[in-house]
Design a protein that fits this description.
Radius of gyration: 21 Å
Strand order of the largest sheet: 2-1-3
Structural class: mainly alpha
Helix content: over 70%
Strand content: under 5%
Number of strands: 3
Mean pLDDT: 83
Shape: globular
Largest sheet: 3 strands, mixed
Distance between the termini: 64 Å
Length: 312
């Protein structure tokens, strides 16, 4: 099996989420509504931050980039999953499967770094306020963005390197609704135990490592806020609660999938569905409803759109 990919499999078949018609109908409504809301909400955040001068600060720059990457997060697996819900034969091409895996891991890697950058931004703003503008300069923000995309792409390419030359010559059925790397490795026509271990370690190390870094930042921030009880601190605590909520919604399913030894198929699918549909929707909701400046900016955007519509 050396000298390239000797695959004879040209497509993979998804088993999907369920065979029950009523549940599929419920999932269709649930997923469609949340997908449209996720796209609309994240586009609105990106547009508001880009056009409103009041939001031209490091925190909102990072938030706009998080919303941009969430557009990718909700679009890598959700549209096909929705499209496939009532299809009897759910398939994806060999190349399409690898492309989906690539973008899923790029988006995941970028989002982890952006969440760390946002935690660092809050750490500097609360723990070192006098040095905030010096530390969180435009150059630092661009640096964080560069590191996020570089790490996301490298992580994804590293994952693909494990499977790009594997032979797929037999079973092609995936008990999932998207191309899941650990499950795909199990379909290869050779022993992939070591590769599965390396993939789990690679993704698990990135997830757990990022989560621990975030935890350290937020512990320092919360200790600082606790020592200085004031109106400013309560505002900071409100912002922090939004950040911490987003972190737990993002890392909860991801850490569980890559660190739990043998999750059940049903639990695996539920967590994957939550990560693909619910988390990208909750991010704009949490950040807008808990942030007065964002709500004011969105009102200004709506007023502008109404004026432009009247003029046209």
């Amino acid at each position: 099996m050396e000298g390239g990919n000797h695959s004879v499999v040209s497509e993979f078949v998804f088993l999907g989420l369920t065979n029950t018609w009523e549940i599929r109908l419920l999932l269709l409504v649930f997923s469609s509504v949340f997908y449209v809301a996720s796209v609309a909400g994240n586009i609105l955040i990106v547009f508001s931050v880009t056009t409103d001068p009041h939001l031209h600060s490091p925190m909102y720059f990072l938030l706009a980039n998080l919303s941009f990457i969430d557009l990718g997060a909700c679009s890598t697996a959700s549209p096909k999953m929705i499209y496939d819900l009532f299809k009897k034969h759910k398939v994806i091409s060999f190349g399409g499967c690898f492309t989906q895996i690539f973008f899923i891991h790029v988006v995941g890697g970028v989002e982890m770094v952006l969440l760390i950058a946002m935690a660092f931004d809050r750490y500097v703003a609360i723990c070192k306020p006098l040095h905030y503008l010096t530390i969180m300069s435009p150059r630092m923000c661009i640096f964080f963005l560069f590191v996020a995309w570089a790490l996301g792409i490298m992580h994804s390419l590293f994952q693909l390197a494990f499977i790009i030359n594997l032979p797929f010559c037999g079973p092609n059925v995936l008990d999932s609704f998207y191309c899941d790397l650990p499950k795909l490795l199990q379909l290869a026509c050779r022993d992939t135990y070591k590769l599965q271990f390396m993939v789990t370690v690679n993704s698990g190390f990135l997830c757990v490592g990022s989560f621990l870094i975030l935890l350290i930042f937020y512990v320092f921030i919360l200790l600082t806020v606790w020592k200085h009880s004031s109106n400013g601190s309560s505002k900071a605590l409100s912002t922090l609660s939004a950040h911490i909520t987003v972190v737990f919604f993002f890392f909860g399913p991801t850490v569980f999938i890559y660190t739990w030894p043998n999750p059940s198929s049903r639990m695996d699918k539920f967590l994957a569905l939550s990560d693909a549909v619910l988390t990208p929707f909750l991010n704009p909701v949490i950040y807008t409803f808990r942030n007065k400046e964002m709500k004011m900016a969105m009102k200004r955007v709506f007023r502008l759109l109404v004026i432009l519509r009247k003029i046209s």
